[in-house]
Amino acid sequence: MAKVSMVEREKKRAHLVKVYAGKRAALKAVVKDQAKPMEERFTASMKLAALPRNSSATRLHNRCQLTGRPHAYYRKLKLSRIMLRELASFGQIPGMVKSSW
Question: How far apart are CA 27 and CA 80, in angstroms?
Answer without folding.
Answer: 35
